[in-house]
Amino acid sequence: MQDSIGDFRILKVIGQGTLGSLYLGEHKFLKKRFALKMLPKEVSEDPVFMQAFEAEIGKIALLEHMNLVKVHTVSKDSDSYFLVTDFISDISGEGRNLSHYLGSLKSRLSEKEIISLLKQVAYGLDYIHKNDLSHGSLKLNNILVGRIEEGIPHLYLSDIGLNAILGQGMILSKMYQVVAKTLEIDQTITGLESESPYTEKRGDLKVLTKLHRSFLQSYAFLAPEQKLGGNESLYGPKSDVYAFGLLTYFLLMGYMPEGCFKMPTTELSGFTCDWDLLIKATLKQNPLERCDNLTDLLDKIVPKELGDIERNLKRVSPVREVETFREYVPESEPAPVYVAATASTEPAPKPIIQPSVLKKFEYDEDPGAIFETKLTVTQYKPKEKEITDQEPMLTEMIVIEGGEYFRGDNAGARDEKPRHKIQLSSYAIDVHPVSNEQFVRFLDVMGCEKDSNNNDMINLKESRIKRSNGKLSIESGYTKHPVVGVSWYGARAYAHWVGKRLPSEVEWEIAASQGLEDNLYPYGSEIERTQANFFSSDTTPVMSYPANPNGLFDMAGNVYEWCEDWYGYNYYELSIQEPLNPKGPAQGVYRVLRGGCWKSLKDDLRCSHRHRNNPGSLNRTYGFRCSADVG
């Protein structure tokens, strides 16, 4: 084994796959551990591969999701490329995949455990597909197992998109070559080039068994269109859906489906989910007949009693009531609005997006100019950049139905009391906080970080957005993270630009808690670190954690969110007397913030917890989301 690869010191060999070796390496300078996946040497000499590699690897490196192995960079050592990814390990520090994990179990998985595992895989695949990519080689060995919490392992999908980059033909050829090399077969008879002479030497049984299992697993999880070869345009998300169906069948039955296979309900007793529906929707021979969204499909087959238990695992966008399977809508099309379930037959209310309001800061003329007989110094005025093509990137919205709700908490802090009933009109609220890629467009249009009243909208030093030579950029890896360092003035100015407004304090709380007394947190009476980003070291991409029952993401943790209201310590005592759409005090010193942030303690994440600060305050924990009236 070589001692180093590029800037990494090799600690050990993790595994050997059909595409090459996988090493555990430590960066020589950063002293951090990474997994290093070597790609076949011959691919770097293939111009077709290099073209596909350059086109796809950048997209793969941008993916950030809690159920995906993060690809940090691509490097080259001698004549071979290698991927630098996170090293996923369990509590003992060892790397394991789902095949190892299942082999260590002393009994079959329960239905709840199977749902938990499948939902994590579905979240990862749906996120990949939403970004116009596909996995291409889903199998047990490519699903890595991290730490186990409450009996459920955290799963990560690895080797994303390698099939698309290398091509199915090369994948199959490498699989055959590895088998033939181990058996010492003359590969010319298989149609593959090799310098090894033909022999009839028997291989070691243990080696062959392990090799056969790896080969058969890789082959068994291929969709029909992948095995047939030919038109590679057919490969993609639909092939992943087929592999997901195979995985589901294996977890349920303990073996792979072959020929005219039995449906799960014929052999499983005590299981309550409609597993037959999932198998039929995924294992279609024709790719076009397979379902579009795996998370929606799982939600459809899981009964309510199990759905409530598994709700904390939701990490994808909510579903349209009228759809069987959710269809991906490209960003170039108008963003859809998802509406809370209602028994009414009337047309669903929609957010009212107002005309864009953009007020720029204007520099005053020099008042001393009238006393000058001859100006020798010209007053500085920054040159305004004409922006003609920067349009807002709108966020999807959820409509919260109007009605009677409860706000506050009698067991909370003094300013949360008394818990009382209020009456709200219907309104819409963004499904996630405003991200850096959304806010940077606004700054580009404004041309500076000041609003029309000369208030600071954002402190770039506290944010992940930088300005160099007049050009704005986002730090690498933070495009999808919530914008931070934003003042209340900046949040409101952005909201007006996109035709929305900031949510009132009561709108924010009801969106988080549904007004239910048991919902101390957006997910119920308790909250875990698998459900929200808190007591950590940095923000995470929006929508990385579960949605609450209203279908809203990041209502707890990640960033504090500005609300429209002034803060009043005793305001709830007045709100009892004026319960219709309370808007907070008429004036004050501080504005309200809600939800806790990435470095908050658990108590700060309570739905009723009230935080406040000067509207001009800017730091790394403050962000926002928008709201709108409906009609």
Descriptive notes:
The protein is an alpha+beta fold. Among the domains are: 4-86, Phosphorylase Kinase, domain 1; 398-631, Alpha-Beta Complex (paralog of FGE (formylglycine-generating enzyme)), CATH 3.90.1580. Helices cover 25% and strands 16% of the residues. It has 15 helices and 21 strands. A hairpin with a 2-residue loop joins strand 5 and strand 6. The longest helix has 20 residues, at 111-130. The radius of gyration is 28 Å and the shape is globular. The model is unreliable at 182-215, 308-345 and 382-388 (pLDDT under 50).
In percent terms, what proportion of residues is strand? 15-25%
Largest sheet: 6 strands, antiparallel
What's the tally of helices?
A: 15
What gap, in angstroms, lies between the N and C termini? 67 Å
> What is the overall silhouette?
globular
Please specify the SSE layout and strand pairing.
Elements: E1 4-5, E2 8-17, E3 20-27, E4 33-38, H1 47-62, E5 71-77, E6 80-86, E7 96-97, H2 98-104, H3 111-130, E8 143-149, E9 152-157, H4 162-166, H5 168-183, H6 205-220, H7 224-228, H8 237-253, H9 275-282, H10 294-301, H11 304-310, E10 337-339, E11 397-400, E12 403-407, E13 420-424, E14 427-430, H12 436-446, E15 465-468, E16 471-474, H13 488-497, H14 505-513, E17 560-566, H15 571-575, E18 591-594, E19 611-613, E20 622-623, E21 627-629
Parallel strand pairs: 10-11, 17-20
Antiparallel strand pairs: 1-2, 2-3, 3-4, 4-6, 5-6, 7-8, 8-9, 11-14, 12-13, 14-21, 15-16, 17-18, 18-19
Helix pairs in contact: 3-8, 5-6, 8-9
Give short descriptive properties of this protein.
single chain; 631 residues; alpha+beta; Phosphorylase Kinase, domain 1; paralog of FGE (formylglycine-generating enzyme); four-stranded mixed beta sheet; 15 helices; 16% strand
